[in-house]
Amino acid sequence: MNTVFSAFRGRLGGKPAVESQPEARLTHRAAFAIDHHRRPRVIPENEGLAIVKYGLREWPVLIDTSPCNFGGYRRWLVCGTCQAKRVALYVFGEHLACRKCMGLRYGCQHESERDRAYRRANAIRELLNWKPGIAHPNGPKPLGMHRTTFNRLVTEHDSLVNRLLGNASKWIEQAESRLQRMGR
Ligand SMILES: [Zn+2]
Predict the structure, then answer these.
(1) Which of the listed residues 60, 87, 124, 184 has the most CB atoms within 10 Å of its CB?
(2) Cα 156 to middle of ligand 1, angstroms
(3) How many angstroms does the Cα of residue 131 sit away from the middle of ligand 1?
(4) What is the C-alpha separation between 125 and 95, in angstroms, rounded?
(5) Distance separating alpha carbons of residues 35 and 182, to the nearest angstrom
(6) What tens digit of pLDDT does each residue of 1-43 get?
(7) How confident is the model over 125-177, as pLDDT tens digits?
(8) What's the gap in Å between 85 CA and the centre of ligand 1?
(9) What is the reported pTM?
């Protein structure tokens, strides 16, 4: 996948209690970069909210904290799609979301079958102009796309999603039976 990885550290002003900085590592496809020389910026509005700006686009992002081992707080960006606390959010087209929701992977990381399915499903969603993230409902057929192409992509997408969610429910079952064995 043609992804461009870039690093950015956002600086928090104001609040003296806040020592750590939210670090937004964002990635985007070169094709979507309006101005690829400019990196996404994280601009804290207050303790709980930041604005991520990239080119002409901007997204409000919630900031969450968790205590550090040695005092102070670690700050996280909250993914607007899955609400998880993340170190990094990613720009993909008009969307800003975490790696999981985008189906992205780290460049040289071993890619599991599950990650591959995630990525493929999200690649199809992108082709169809659907909202990234398999948790979202399917969208309509894009204008100008041939009906047979659309049907083929939807069939592949749905079978990937079934596989991924099927896996998840299997994991949940396993976890539940583990808990039952532990007498909880
Ligand atoms: Zn997410």
Answers:
(1) 124
(2) 22
(3) 12
(4) 12
(5) 55
(6) 333 333 333 333 322 222 233 334 443 333 333 344 556 778 8
(7) 999 999 888 877 889 999 999 999 999 999 999 888 887 776 555 555 555 56
(8) 8
(9) 0.40
